[in-house]
Amino acid sequence: MPIFHIASDEEIKKGETTDIYFVRTKQVLEAKGLEKTSAVAEVTSGNLPENWSWSILCGIEELALLFKNIPVDVYSMPEGTAFYSTDIQGFHEPVMRIEGSYGAFCIYETALLGLICQASGIATRAARLRKIAEKKQLISFGIRRMHPSLSPMIDRAAFIGGFDAVSCLAGARSTQTEPVGTMPHALIVVLGDQIKAWKAFDDIVEKDVPRVALVDTYSDEKTEAILAAETLKNLRAVRLDTPLSRKGNFAEIVREVRWELNLRGYEQVKIFVSGGLNEGTIKQLSKAGADAFGVGTYVCNSPAINFALDIVQIKGKLCAKRGKLGGKKEVWRCQECLTDIVLPYYKPQPKCPKCRSRTERMLKPTIKKGKIVAKLPKPKEIRRFVMKQLDKLPLD
Ligand code: PCP
After folding, report:
1. How far is ligand 1, taken at its centre, from the CA of residue 55, in Å?
2. Ligand 1 centroid vs 395 CA: distance in angstroms?
């Protein structure tokens, strides 16, 4: 009997995490002998959350493994691809296309969407923070806010979006990185005072772990920051995790700590901030002198992208419900300016409508008759791909 209320790999693969109406749909199609009806279905997003002008597609590796041995063809934008809700003409752009007997994939619609809606939202917020934090360190601190079964997915998506490291052991395994963290208030409270706790940490924890002293437990951040710098000669940074009740002007606190450390010759001691961080506060605190950010809720609780799967062709006949565009499409992207143009599949390759450069087909073969044919890159490679695109993507 499972301990936690989560679906197993087997349940997901067997389609048991689907909506019951798909089971009933399959039942009706089978009774009518229509389960083998050939269909083309496309995945598009509605308007992106918070008026984002782009999002990062994440969850494709899991989706490919979900569709392994399901006798359909899947064409998808590769994991880490920046996509838009609509192309330059305003037509909604598909990020994925499925071709095959509708009865073969109808019960997987729910899981397919679930695998990319949440992860893409997390990767997008992470990518936006990456642009705001520029070269400064971003650590995913959010797994405590969500069901623990999701921690590897959350950290992988944050890492792919551009975070430098993750705090969770299982999350570090999913990104093939080393987990990164500092010290909790509990260590200081149990040891009885800050100096004892900082010294104990320095004496006991492996030497290759950077010494980052938490400096907001009992007294003013600048007092504790000076104390920490005087206590640990190899201090890498101080962490300010100031409680909301004391936060006031957090940027001012960061400036004070920076000033007082520099005044005493501790320019090398960095300032790490965490607690309630978001796009606005990271921008502000970075300007004030913060060097690294531990971000939790804002990224792990990112808005899900509202992807939908819609049939656009049945037995070759164009069809689509109201509000969706009929027929099999291709997304062509300019490799120079990342402009997209959506055209009917049979149309020839266009030049970029904006800069006349060459375009490239974006929906790549991912599954062929149930066989994974796409390369499934490791998170570090996907992250590099995301970072390359970010240089050409505006922050609205
Ligand atoms: C929190 C803990 C989380 C940080 C802040 C993320 O501090 O360090 O990792 O917070 P966010 O979700 O608002 O971004 P505490 O709750 O004080 O926990 P601890 O004492 O363990 O650092």
Report:
1. 27
2. 27
Provide the 8-state DSSP code for 272: E
Q: Which of 292, 312, 329 is where one domain is finished? A: 292
Which tens digits make up the pLDDT trace of 309-329? Answer: 999 999 999 999 999 999 999
pTM over 0.85, yes/no: yes
**Which among 273, 261, 252, 253 is positioned nearest to 228, based on CA atoms?**
261
Within-domain flag for 332: yes
Residue nearest to atom 2 of ligand 1 (CA): 275
> Residue 62 sits in a domain of what CATH number?
3.20.140.10
Domain housing 24: 9-120+303-390
Atom 13 of ligand 1: nearest residue by CA position:
276
* 259 Cα–ligand 1 center, Å: 25
Both 224 and 247 in one domain: the answer is yes
Give pLDDT tens digits for 201-222: 999 999 999 999 999 999 999 9
Q: Which residues line ligand 1 (CB under 6 A)?
A: 141-142, 145, 184-185, 241, 274-277, 294-298
